[in-house]
Predict the structure.
Amino acid sequence: MIKKIFKLLLLLFFFNLISYSFVKADNSKVDEISKNLRCLICQGQSVYDSNSDFALSVKTLISQKLDAGNSEDDIYNFLKSKYGDWIVYEPEINKYTLLLWLMPLFLFIFGGLLIVKKLFINRT
Amino acid sequence: MRIKFSYIFVFLITAFILLIFFKSLFEDKSYVPKKINNKIENISIEEFYSGNNLMLKELINDEKYIIINIWASWCIPCRQEHQYLKNISKITDFKMIGLNYKDKKENAEKFLEELGNPYDVILRDKNGTKSIFFGAFGVPETFIIDSELNIVRKYIGPLNLENQVEIEKLLK
Amino acid sequence: MLNLIGNYSLILALITSFILLFLSIKNFKSDSNLNFGIVVSISLQSILICISFLTLLFSFIISDFSNLAVYNNSHTTKPMFYRISGTWGNHEGSLLLWLLVLSLFISIFVFRTKKLLISFRILTIFFQQLIITGFLLFIIFTSNPFQLIIPTPTEGLGLNPILQDPALAIHPPILYLGYVGTSIIFSSSLAALVCRYTNKEWASDLKKWTLISWIFLTLGIMLGSIWAYYELGWGGFWFWDPVENVSLMPWFCLTALLHCTSVLEKRSNLKSWTIILALSTFILSMSGTFLVRSGILNSVHTFANDPERGIFVLIFLTVLILISLTIYFKYNDIEKLTRSFLLSKESAIVINNWFMMYFLGVVLVGTIYPIFLEVITKEKISVGPPYFNQLIIPFLIPFLFIMAIGPKLDWIKNKKFDAKFTKIILLILSILISYLIAKNFNTQVLYSTLLISAALYLFFISITDLKNEKLKLSQKVSHTAFSILIISIILNSLFSEEVSVNLKKGEEKQLSNYLLKFENISKMEIDNFTSLKAEIHVIHNDNKLKFYPELRLYKVPETITSEAAIKTSLFSDNLVVVNYLKDTNYLNIRYQKKPFMLLIWLSAIMLAVGGLIGLKKNFK
């Protein structure tokens, strides 16, 4: 028992070392935002991943807007007003996308109820 | 009874899904932001020759509409549409503005020398960011905007004869 | 000549199919041995399909450009390895491979299940032949790999360079083995339903096929991900791209089925649910094929689109669904479920299934919702990584905790939940460490803490359980592997770092605490492309790393691909990708530090190894 705990502590210590060897991830805001935008030229890629002229310009514009003090949401809204909701990878909740967000959750609740009913209540 | 009900229920859902799949076979899959119809901010853009910054509103005097055409010398379709731009530019009481997109100045000048210059004013978008304000994502694209900077018409890709006739009708 | 052989063996295989359908209906009632004719026809069919596949393979190897598929996808300058993989790197060839695996699997089924009920075996053959017939018709009429071009061209068009990658060369066959394995699960479930053979014997046979498909599917998905990581060169390995999602859906279903069959095997419970899962797995695989091949999904992985093919697959899919629904509702008796106790292995498995179905639901809805929205309202939206992350990751937390506790519960009822001292210590320690990890970056401390502690807790429990002899080895290995996989993925996404800069040859730039130097660039002509190799130095804390990322300019077809330079170590990957900036002599240089990449691949392999151990045990 004691041996076991000792081994574990060793393991934990080791893990701790790893976790401390990392500095705080310092990724640029531009990358973060452009990962959530879909490129209009190569439509399977994000703006971040794409090297098309359009994607490069959008990245430049994002950094300009950030420098001018715009927030992340300002930038998403600006781009949505220019290119439509399609450009963002995270669809905002509106009448068109309500089901998109709720359906999986309904499924989860429904599944839970079904399990409780079938396995724990109905039978003896 | 209960089985019959769930059979019908599951059957209907599946039928619905398959129907949608069937219909989507004939949908156009790639996305083009066609319908977005909005106002352009009054931004400043660099003038091609002088390098001075101009506000968009300064370009509009008393014209009802102006045309903004995004082009580049490296863009092959731009050559195709150039003749239609020249035809349209023969109408006098409006302005045609060229927005030179991510281009080298020498190349752009050569392009205009070779094919003629239909533009009243040429602006320059060195890094492509200004075009984003118009909602453009490639070259060529052509916009007709009114004096309040609302986009009235938008043409993605090279103009053709049909577009030319349509634009002329609108402007006259 | 080759084309003729290939074509005729396909047509003969189709005829054999019809014979088999006829024979299996005729002999359904016989209760003696399996009809000799059936055995012969099945072997014959496999041989015929094998011949036609080998013919195509041979045409690719000798670059026989009189074949349209070879002309479209091959080139004489292509290395032999990629000529071979070119066979299945295209639509027609990949379908033929799929067909080959289908027929091989049914042959294996026939020879390996001699002990099972004879009418069940015949019916399984019947349903499997239905699928094979469908595929044969599809191949012969819409995607024939043996089309002639006259006159014969002297040179081919080449294989898309982005597909010329070792991981991608073996990715499709492995993935298809997984997909096709689910077809046997499907046929066998329908047959079992009709014969009322849904008992323990059947369950243990089903489990083998489930395990086989699951192992291949796991490896297939991993290889696809490795390909994306090395070849697409964006430093990511999972993009929630529709084509990736499509392969993930049957995986969730199979994982659920894998656990569920144990309940059926041990306790004769959850019959209907097992059947539903078994049927949906194959239907999901087929729908996935439909979505990918018809080009309905807008994805990076593009296949040639052809509405005619789409319609064919859709009809096939409709027939399959109709058959399975009708048979299910006709033959499935209302099952008297045995009551379960909350703290039993059975409920842990049910809860596993519940979560698996939820994950499946999220991926399914996220993938096909845009299609529905577009058809119904003409609105176009994109559903991408933020959606999937937000809906899946929070649910991982309880899922991982349950996964840690579940395996040790007894089948029927746990007398008392023995909260051992060690377990609690482990839990507290997991939370503590996770807090320390999460604290390093400010955002969402609580959330990350919970997530990492759940994963760590599962890891610790699995590690301590490794010695527990009451548990199955396969389960221990897989659960440990899964915990490492999740931890690696989480830490990878939290601690990845990257800097990007545009530099000319000879320039250098300091970015945060990295100094990037563009030292040199060299040009070389290789087989079928021109290689531009850059030498990039990255200096971090007096530590100098040299990278040689590459740009490849392919001639046929004309494309530029970017090969990342990756330095892999056990705990961290360092990679540099360069990209060409048009009309300038600058290169865009992107340096990324991705922790735990190797562990992600290793743990995925370990996951599959766990499955393999289980399979071996089942064959004893």
